[in-house]
Design a protein that fits this description.
Length: about 260
């Protein structure tokens, strides 16, 4: 992890944990994490929409140093979009981070690069930080198309953003074949792709933006695998699905520095 970029560990619960389970989880996690852990690592939680208000109230009441995140939002502020959630409403709820363009949204719900780019802009318009997901399928991986795919995704999402806007963003590189499969990209392989993402960010925006943007790895990250991932120079954090549902396991992921100490 390069010097000035604060590591960021994010828990993407997907469609798991109702608001009662969420409250219990957050209470347990905040008990397991120490001040030192939270001084060193930024922790974001991305529960289902129905849990957001409960967790926000708990974070405020107990002054917890956990950042509230969402898993998705719409690109418009309001209107006739049945079933969608406005980024303006998320900002009002104290949401700091919004995952944008997760591969499950792209593959299962037909989100295009263009729509993802509009969402990135909408999230930033409301003062929140997008976590932009990019990544290749198994077929693309095997055909050697990984870098073409991620460069296209990065270019489409960032080319209308200013250098200042890009500096504050987070990108998550999630090879689709590694999500929920128990198969990790090797830390060295992930480093190569993430270094290429950083280069593409420099080409699309600026060198200072590419030095500042934080890039996570995601895909079957566990407490036993994170320390090696975080040793890679361009990897600034992880986006965790399955292993973020168990508070003990997730706390151990946040505490990866203890393993390397
Ligand atoms: P996983 O999910 O850790 O269960 O592979 C990662 C993600 O989809 O964000």
């Amino acid at each position: 992890m390069a010097g000035e970029r604060t590591p960021i560990v994010s828990g993407n619960w997907k469609m798991n944990q109702n608001h009662f389970e969420a409250i219990q989880f957050v209470q347990k996690l905040s008990y397991l994490l120490q001040k030192d852990d939270l001084d060193a690592v930024e922790v974001t939680l991305h529960p289902p929409f129905t849990d957001l208000r409960s967790i926000q109230t708990l974070i405020d009441a107990d002054k917890l140093r956990l950042k509230l995140g969402a898993q998705n939002c719409h690109a418009e502020d309001r209107g006739a979009f049945t079933g969608e959630v406005s980024p303006a409403f998320l900002a009002k709820l104290g949401v700091h981070y919004v995952i944008v363009g997760h591969s499950e949204r792209r593959q299962l719900f037909g989100e295009t690069d263009e729509f993802v780019a509009r969402k990135v802009a909408a999230v930033q318009k409301h003062g929140m930080t997008p976590i932009l997901c990019v990544g290749e399928t198994l077929e693309e991986h095997e055909a050697g198309l990984t870098l073409d795919k991620i460069r296209r995704q990065i270019r489409s999402a960032l080319d209308k953003r200013t250098s200042e806007q890009v500096k504050s963003m987070v990108v998550a590189y999630e090879p689709i074949w590694a999500i929920g499969t128990g198969k990790n990209a090797l830390p060295g392989e992930a480093q190569v792709v993430i270094a290429a993402i950083r280069e593409e960010v420099a080409a699309v925006t600026s060198r200072p933006a590419s030095a500042a943007i934080r890039i996570q790895y995601g895909g079957s990250v566990k407490a036993g695998t994170i320390a090696d991932i975080m040793r890679q120079p361009d990897i600034d954090g992880v986006l965790v699905g399955g292993a973020s549902l168990d508070s003990t396991e997730f706390a151990r992921i946040v505490q990866y520095r203890r393993q390397s100490a």
